[in-house]
Amino acid sequence: MPTLSLFDAHRMTRPLPEQTRGIASRLQSQGLATIEGLTTRTAVLAFAQRVMRLAAHRDSDSDELTTIRDIGHRSLQPGLGGLGNGELLTHTERSSEPSPPRLMLLVCHRPATTGGDVILTDGQAIHGYLAKHFPAALEAFALPNTAFYGDGGGHPSQVFTRHPGQRASIRLRQDSLAAFSPLVRGYLPQLRQAIDAVQVRLTLEAGQGYLIDNSRWLHARAAFTGNRVCLRALGTPRFPMPTGFPHAAPNQVDAPAAVGGDAP
Ligand SMILES: [Fe+2]
Predict the structure, then answer these.
(1) Which residues are in the CB-under-5-Å shell of ion ligand 1?
(2) Can you give 6-63 as a three-state secondary structure string?
């Protein structure tokens, strides 16, 4: 699994206000930017406010940032695993809401003693892997209303939502608040194989973080020990973001090369 190369490839060192445009273009093209130098809560908040209109959520503090730390046994309740120290399986943030936040920023404030790595997975890469290796699974995961995320107040969905113009978005959770239709349940091992094949792992130091398009990139966390603290912001981008991510049409995947004839 790649490690720091992903961070380096997307890195924005000490993001200044005039670099917001560069971050926007990374989000638009790749759905991901990595950041460092955000060593204080004030710096995290200022950066977040430059790139998004923050949305308050169940766990956020009065400044609309959320402090992600181990809160002990209360984190064992369904849907609160992020506030514990256990492994968090690959998921979309706020997958149970009708409209999950488009952007998510997570910055490491204090690293764990051991573990706590971030694991990111590009939905576009999952889509491409399934198209190549398990096309029937891909089509099943795009069937409407084949997943339900959340409790009784949750949201019916599907893993992949297709949009006009050869675009798609991904929405997934894999904890006790996820339920899948029999139409897709048998394909979950292939989906997990795809995730394992394309995911990347980041070890964040204090002040380092990532900004993702939550409709394209899934995130996860390894179990950890120690007093790990991260700051998270969720919100709507302050720049245009076309719906979803581009994907190849099913009949464009691994199409055989044209033979003979018409090439100039
Ligand atoms: Fe999360």
Answers:
(1) 93
(2) HHHHCEEECCCHHHHHHHHHHHHHHCEEEEECCCCHHHHHHHHHHHEEECCCCCCCCC
Distance of CA 250 from the midpoint of ligand 1 (Å): 30
pLDDT for 78 beyond 90: no
Residue 215 pLDDT greater than 70, yes or no = yes
Amino acid letter, 103: L
The whole-model pTM stands at 0.88
User: What domains does the chain contain, in order, with CATH numbers?
Assistant: 4-238 (3.60.130.10)
- Give which of 178, 185, 176 is closest to 76, Cα–Cα: 176
How far is the centre of ligand 1, averaged over its atoms, from the C-alpha of 153 (Å)?
19
Distance 91 CA to ligand 1 centre (A): 6
Q: How many whole angstroms from its chain centre is CA 124? A: 11
- Cα(242) to ligand 1 centroid in Å equals 22
Q: For position 58, what pLDDT does the model report?
A: 81
